[in-house]
Amino acid sequence: MKVFINPGHAPNGNPDPGALNEYLGLRECDIALSIGDLVRRYLVKAVCKVKELQSHNLAGESAGECIVQSANDWQADIFVSIHCNAANTLARGAETLVYSLTGEGAALGRFIQNQLCSTLQKFNNDFPDRGLKCRPLLAVLRGTTMPAVLVETAFIDNDLDALLLMNQQQDIAGAIARGITDYWQKNSREE
Fold this sequence. Notes:
Layout: E1 2-7, E2 20-21, E3 26-27, H1 28-45, E4 49-52, H2 67-74, E5 78-85, E6 94-98, H3 104-120, E7 129-134, H4 139-142, E8 148-155, H5 159-167, H6 169-190
């Protein structure tokens, strides 16, 4: 299995670090990269081929390697973009964005969402499962040719969620990796 991992936002936070928690000094680009690196390591141990690319060039709008084109050219079997959500400092939980609520992207999203929420609920039993959300206009979901998801791991601007993002990165990454391998094993059994 070939998995393309896209930690969200620009490397080193330039020009777009993504969402912030200024009080705790957290930037989405850093958290996403750290979790993405861990997911890559888990998947490599599970004998997957993995390519990881963090870039603000999602669909050819900027210079540098293009996320969507790289995933398609590499002929990945699965595409996973990793992010942190932000809203009003009150919202909490994880959600997984998909192109459509049906099809293989949604199936992959359900496996990851279930693993992520059940894992984080062990550390905070009130951690909300915000479910799958349909976002067909997102470039990384619209332009990729393989099952693709964008995982919003937790709300970086909520201090309870931010503590999970700071202290449970191994667990978050393990949950995402398990969701990917669960999906792949289910598809392999059906073939």
